[in-house]
Amino acid sequence: MEQFIPILKKSKLFSGVRDDEISSMLSCLGASFREYKKGEFVLRQGERLSSILVLAEGNLHIQNDDYWGNRSILGEISPGEMFGEAFVTSESETLLNDVAAVTDSAVVSFDVKRVLTTCSSACRFHTIVVQNLFCEISEKNRKLVRKLGYMSKRTTREKLISYLSEQAKKQNSASFSIPFNRQQLADFLSVDRSAMSNELCKMRDDGLILFERNRFTLL
């Protein structure tokens, strides 16, 4: 698990924690890791969770399938990102969504009780990690607000413009790549894939955008 220290150091959860402290943390916080193959579920709807999870390698999607198999992608998890924190308290309900591996992935888990309880040696990183945990939860809430902003738009074009505009601002460039293929983007925006593809072509013909696969340029 030591090989994941560089990515853990880059994660917001461990911002300000030294390499040697992260190494000590792995045993102090009951860290463990597991690898997942592409398409495998990391978490399933209805499960209970007692660990804070950090993606060390690969790519994950938070998704939900209805009774008829229609899928909605609620979010993407990239290396270094924390997930599952909203469901780790004893009072929390079971998981509302699935988390699936989009590529071969590795996940590091930390016992939430050890994270929130200061150990006998009173490690400096405990306070830092708890502070970072609060900040990360706040950032997740902001992401949720942005997602609600996309979903509140009435038409497919308005949803696309809202999402693509946000990505351009986030990457500080009119040309950027998104983390979704066409089907995944349709699932993320909760629109029909064919209708979305037609709308993208209309937006291109109207001189609003250029695109190739998951690469877009706003004009």
In summary, what is this structure?
The chain is α+β, with helices and mostly antiparallel strands and 219 residues long.
Furnish the topology, listing elements before pairings:
Elements: H1 5-10, H2 19-28, E1 32-36, E2 41-43, E3 51-57, E4 60-65, E5 71-77, E6 82-83, E7 98-101, E8 105-111, H3 112-116, H4 124-151, H5 156-171, E9 175-177, H6 182-189, H7 193-205, E10 209-212, E11 215-218
Antiparallel strand pairs: 1-8, 2-7, 3-6, 3-8, 4-5, 4-7, 9-11, 10-11
Helix pairs in contact: 4-5
Keywords:
alpha+beta, Arc Repressor Mutant, subunit A, 219 residues, 7 helices, four-stranded antiparallel sheet, Jelly Rolls, 2 domains, elongated
Characterise the protein shown here.
By secondary structure, this protein is α+β, with helices and mostly antiparallel strands. Helix content is 39%, strand content 24%. The chain has 7 helices and 11 strands. The strands form 3 sheets. A 4-stranded antiparallel sheet has the order 1-8-3-6. Strands 2-7-4-5 form a 4-stranded antiparallel sheet. A hairpin with a 5-residue loop joins strand 4 and strand 5. Helix 4 runs antiparallel to helix 5. The longest helix is centred in the middle third of the chain and has 28 residues. The protein starts with a helix and ends with a strand.
Distance between the ends: 45 Å
User: So, the CATH homologous superfamily of the largest domain?
Assistant: Jelly Rolls
Biggest pleated-sheet summary: 4 strands, antiparallel
CATH architectural designation of the largest domain: Sandwich
Structural class by helix and strand composition: alpha+beta
Oligomer: single chain
In N-to-C order, the SSE pattern is HHEEEEEEEEHHHEHHEE
Q: How many domains?
A: 2
> How would the global form be characterised?
elongated
Uncertain runs: none
CATH level 1 name of the largest domain: Mainly Beta
In which order are the strands of the major sheet placed?
1-8-3-6
Helix segment count? 7
**Could you tell me the mean pLDDT?**
88
In total, the number of strands is 11
What would you report as the Rg, rounded to the nearest angstrom?
A: 19 Å
CATH topology heading of the largest domain: Jelly Rolls
Specify the helix fraction band: 25-40%
Strand content: 15-25%
